[in-house]
Write a structure and sequence with these properties.
The chain is mainly alpha-helical and 111 residues long. It has a single domain, classed as Arc Repressor Mutant, subunit A. The protein is built from 4 helices and 4 strands; from the N terminus they run E-E-H-H-H-E-E-H. It has a two-stranded antiparallel sheet. A hairpin with a 7-residue loop joins strand 3 and strand 4. The chain is elongated, with a radius of gyration of 16 Å. The protein starts with 11 loop residues before the first strand and ends in a 6-residue tail after the last helix.
Length: 111
């Protein structure tokens, strides 16, 4: 009988930032913001509260040397959000390390 191994669940952490880590929700939120142009819509599509999404955006903007996203107040048709180059690089980097890790786990690396 093959030996059962415990599941592998890697996390990307930044030691110099205290407890900051890029848990799956943060890069996923960045991808959804890029796709929808809205923090509210991104949060809704992820089943996340708008307040929680804003807390994650603020935490990422405070952590990185440059903001990961920018938003315009206005709501309705006047507001919106977009990734900065830093946010785009962060999103690409997390996708890049997720794929080989998923192969180790026997998954696809898609979220």
């Amino acid at each position: 009988m093959p030996r059962a191994y415990p599941p592998l669940e890697p996390r990307l952490r930044f030691p110099h930032a205290g407890r900051m880590r890029l848990a799956p929700a943060r890069p996923s939120l960045l991808r959804h913001i890029a796709a929808t142009g809205s923090i509210r819509t991104a949060a809704s599509e992820m089943g996340m509260s708008y307040d929680r999404a804003w807390k994650l955006v603020r935490a990422m903007n405070e952590y990185f040397a440059c903001r990961s996203s920018r938003s315009r107040a206005g709501g309705g048709s006047g507001g919106g959000a977009a990734l900065t180059p830093t946010g785009e690089r962060s999103s690409r980097a997390t996708r890049a390390w997720r794929k080989p890790v998923a192969r180790l786990r026997g998954g696809t690396g898609k979220r």
